[in-house]
Amino acid sequence: MSDALRERGCEPVELPLIGFEASSDADVVASKVKALDADGWIAVTSPRASATLAAAGGAYGRGLVQVGPALPNAAGVAEELIRRGATSVLWLCGDRALPTLGARLAGAGVEVAKLVVYRTVLLCPGEAEIDDALLGLAAATFTSPSTVEALAACAKTPWLEAARASLRCVALGATTSSALSAAGFSRVVVAASPTNAALAAAASGDLGL
Questions:
Q1: How confident is the model over 115-135, as a mean pLDDT?
Q2: For 67, how many CA atoms within 13 A lie in the half-sphere containing its CB?
Q3: Beta-carbon count within 10 A of 181 CB
Q4: Which helix (H) or strand (E) holds 122?
Q5: What value, to the nearest 5°, has the Cα angle with vertex 69 and ends 97 and 72?
């Protein structure tokens, strides 16, 4: 992400606000995948879940549909699985995954087994680090609702009150955009696609860069 911003002429400031912890090891994931029948499908709705599947040995010949440029969100993954006639799906996701995929598939009569493979942990950097990172920002990029929640929890109230009215906030997708609006931020734009390049383009769009 920082490289994509530099290519746009921006000076990136990194402030990690979330971390991840594994909640299912590779052996557990592999056994769940192998237990699928020959017609079973695997749904992956985040890059981290995709990496977990790869570490477990991959899809073992089962059908796989995952979030990517062509299917930018869980709703798209669900519709693609329905289009392909899936009847049973193993859904690999994080603990904060929205119920969108599971609800849509269940509503279409698809049997869904949800396996949480990682947990999202909110981080709170030191006060000095936060102050340095937030000073003089022209825009801020957010990659998930969790990053919005973490910033609201860590930032000082006076800064938040000003930022809600003036800070250009760039969301990776519609769900993150909704979280920003719900948190009171008024200048919110959404990247054209869920990629670092699109996020950087949206961040620099009104800055004359």
A1: 87
A2: 21
A3: 14
A4: strand 111-122
A5: 30
Placement of tokens 């904060």 in the chain = 96
Please identify which residue in the block is written with the tokens 């799906």.
89
What tokens appear for 71 in the block?
């299917």
Q: For residue 203, with 0-12 CB atoms within 10 Å meaning exposed, 13-18 middle and 19 or more buried, which class applies?
A: buried
- Ordered structural domains, the chain, with CATH: 2-17+123-204 (3.40.50.10090), 21-121 (3.40.50.10090)
Please report where in the chains the tokens 């734009």 appear, as a residue: 189
Does the pLDDT value for residue 30 go beyond 60? yes
Is residue 173 within 8 Å of 148, Cβ to Cβ? no
User: What is the per-residue pLDDT for 170?
Assistant: 95
CA–CA dist 155, 24 (Å, integer): 32
* pLDDT tens-digit readout, 174-197: 889 999 999 999 999 999 988 889
Tell me the residue type at 30. Answer: A
pTM of the prediction? 0.79
Query: Greatest CA span in the chain, whole angstroms?
Result: 57
Percent of the chain with pLDDT over 70: 98
Tokens 């849509």 belong to residue: 104
Give the contacts of 36 (CB within 8 A, at least 6 positions apart): 42, 62, 88, 90
